Amino acid sequence: MSKQDLFPILWTMATIEPLSSAEEVLLRAVMRLIKVLPRYLDTDLIRGAGLSASEYLTLMHLSEAPNRELRMTELSNATGLSASRMTRLVDGLQSRGFVVKNASASDGRGAVARLTPTGMTKLKSAWRVHLNSVRRRFFDHIDDSTVEHVADALAAVAAQLEDRTPV
Q1: pLDDT tens, 80-113?
Q2: Paired sense of beta strands 69-71 and 111-115, if any
Q3: CB distance 19 to 27 below 8 Å
């Protein structure tokens, strides 16, 4: 047996190229963005529209769905929130008149959230706040000529990661 067969992880580690300085800068910038940008966007939405970023995202997904409704599990998946967190969030939106939650008409087992006209009005008013925040906090700092290239590159990485189960 070769050393590679006996110690595959160590062998792989020994053959991995270190990050270039540009790769290191990019990775660290992405990690900082992952931490910081959502907090700014959330704060701006709360101050300017009275919605958290998670609430905005939930209303947005409902607005884009057929009949402006989604099963709670689909909504949870679309927003990246746990089922219990989504339930609490939708209950709060329902208490404010932005959504209604009912048993599924197709099978009666699951719950369906539906955007109300009041919720659509709230989403439209929050959209301007969100757009201003995203431009000010992110896009105003990126040269227009690089946006498409960066978008393609990061979308490819995201798609590849979404297709795998973390180990």
Answers
A1: 999 999 999 999 999 999 999 998 877 767 899 9
A2: antiparallel
A3: yes
- CATH number for the region 37-133 comes to 1.10.10.10
Flag whether pLDDT at 167 surpasses 70.
no
Against a cut of 0.85, is the pTM above it? no
The domain limits of the chain are 37-133
Q: Helix and strand tally (H, E) in the chain?
A: 8, 3
Q: How far apart are CA 107 and CA 99, in angstroms?
A: 20
- Partnered with residue 71 across adjacent β-strands are 112
Helix (H, G, I), strand (E, B) or coil at 103: strand
- Work out the number of other CB atoms within 10 angstroms of the CB of residue 111: 16
Question: CA of 41: how far to CAs of 25, 49, 85, 165, in Å?
Answer: 23, 11, 19, 28
State the DSSP code for 100: E
